[in-house]
Amino acid sequence: MMAVATVARAPILPMLVRQTGAEFLKLWRVPAFSITSLVLPVMFYAFIGIGQSSQNIFPGVKFGSYFLASMAVYAVANVMIFSFGISVATERGMKMDVLMRATPMPPWVYLLSKCITALAFAGLTLVVLFPFAYIAGNVRIDASEWATLAYRVLLGSIPFIALGFAIGYLSGPNSAVAVINLIYLPTAFASGLFFPKQLLPSFIQSISPYLPLHFFGQLGWDAIGAPTDGNVTTDWIYLIGYGVAFFALALWAYRREEGRKFS
Amino acid sequence: MPVAAQLIEATKKYGSIEALRGVSLEIELGDVVAMLGPNGAGKTTSISLLLGLRKPTSGKALLFGLSPYHLDARTRVGVMLQESGIPAMLKVREIVDLFRSYYPKPMSSDRAIAMAGLEEKAGALVKELSGGQRQRLYFALAVCGDPEVLFLDEPTVGMDVEGRRSFIERIAEFANLGRTVVLTTHYLEEADQLAKRVVVIDRGVVIADASPQEIKSRVAGKRVRFKAGNLSERDLEGLPVTTTTITDHSVQLLTNQPESVLRELFRKGIDISDLEVSGADLEDAFISLTSHQGTG
């Protein structure tokens, strides 16, 4: 005789809350991640932004606010790629996914909790960066510009979650950091997040307009009133396109892993 | 009794390696089953199929009559795996609470931590735990959902004798609540202490499925080695010997009654030197079990 299963399952919301709390603590307690993602953007802002923050980079746009937008984009994308890429790669390396798979937790709870955690961390970097720019960089923009910058960088960071996830599944626990630095830092430079694009070598200037961080950067710069190459709608459309591509890559990498490990 | 877990003609190939070659097995609610076998016998593969961590190449694996992938089935099961990691930067109580949230009617975290004997480490980070403590934490995570069935894949691997003994007691404590326990081990004594039923797996097939007492009586307990110039196979006929190997003048016997075998050989005037009697290890025991089956 077979036991017929009429079973209560655990309620999803408390599970999601616990899982998200655990994901947050896991990242928070690793200083290599929490300190660098909170402090690095502020440090770059101090080195590059403060000195010439009161100069105009465009008519009516101070370098201080322009570079704030650059660093906000950099900080948030940084969190997305690192928190996902490294934590997923490490957890795969330690075979945490194996035990998780044997539990009755639905995999999407795990994924969603990681997304919420990444967004929370991204929000935290802004909580640190914005007041710093206000005080040390003497950035004075409208309240609506602060708000537009914040929501655009948080929303625009979502495609980079998928990229981080894909890297986490495609690279090993030891190589993830290297892979991310090799991809992320050069594209951040090439997209003009550290120096205005006009200062970059011409061949980089010719690739630059196609990079995902370029479109993300434009959304930030536009938010504080700086002129950009395109308009906001096309920037969003390109970013969504990249998001779909990254998501497809992540899904492919995830399925590949499933096929290897659990078949 | 209702069936909790079931393998039906299950086979599993990893590339060209056949890990399971047609295993059928029913585990009823309330069973305490030890799956016994040497390394590579197919114990872990069997458990992986039952938990949906691997797919059978052919045949079926069922948990509570459902696919093991079904969350309704997983909700009733607690698991301790051989090779799996847990986040190093969480505290013991935090991760126990996390796993409790996966189950509808978990036990209190205090109780789960106490069952694993980790009361003093409840506030410690996972990375601060010793190997044995970590193993006990895995046990806490397996029982904290108060599951009907507990799967333990070689739970005492890497522990010393004392650690093994106390760990087996913890498992017995859980089994005594009337729960189903399925554990794999390569120690016959563990199976004997804990299980009501022993399933012996060797090279991907079930070679015995019986009570521990029965298995023990069928397994040769002692290995007898000696040199004898004038021994022939015929001298051993009718003696309680399960396996014999004679190479040149060296003789190796597996038997449960070394005293009576030797008494008979001396009586026959066999010239014995370099006599050595030792406990048979599991490999020997399996050889004798397999040959037992072969000869009837």
| Major protein interface | A-B, 35 and 44 residues
Q: Which residue ranges of chain A are poorly predicted, with pLDDT under 50 across at least 5 consecutive positions?
A: none
CATH class of the largest domain in chain B: Alpha Beta
| Count of individual domains of chain B | 2
Fraction in beta strands of chain A:
under 5%
Q: Regarding quaternary structure, how should these chains be classified?
A: heterodimer
Which residues of chain B sit in consecutive blocks of at least 5 with pLDDT less than 50? 292-296
Biggest sheet, spatial arrangement of strands of chain B: 5-6-7-3-8-9
What would the average pLDDT of chain B be, to the nearest integer? 87
- Give the integer mean of the pLDDT values of chain A: 89
The CATH architecture of the largest domain in chain B can be given as: 3-Layer(aba) Sandwich
Description:
The complex is a heterodimer of chains A (263) and B (296). Chain A has 263 residues and is an all-alpha fold. Chain A has helices at residues 12-28, 31-49, 63-93, 96-102, 107-135, 143-156, 158-170, 176-190, 202-207, 212-223, 232-261, and strands spanning 56-58, 61-62. Chain A starts with 11 loop residues before the first helix and ends with a helix. Chain B is of the alpha/beta class and 296 residues long. Chain B folds into two domains: 3-217, 3-Layer(aba) Sandwich (Rossmann fold); 220-279, Alpha-Beta Plaits (2-Layer Sandwich). Chain B has ten helices and 13 strands. Chain B has a six-stranded mixed beta sheet with strand order 5-6-7-3-8-9, sandwiched between helices. A four-stranded antiparallel beta sheet of chain B has the order 11-12-10-13, sandwiched between helices. Chain B has a three-stranded antiparallel beta sheet with strand order 2-1-4, with helices on one face. In chain B, strand 8 (197-202) and strand 9 form a beta hairpin. In chain B, helix 3 (92-100) crosses helix 4 (109-115). The two termini of chain B are 30 Å apart. The relative contact order of chain B is 0.14. Mean pLDDT of chain B is 87; it is low at 292-296. Chains A and B meet through helix 1 and helix 4 of A and helix 2 and helix 3 of B.
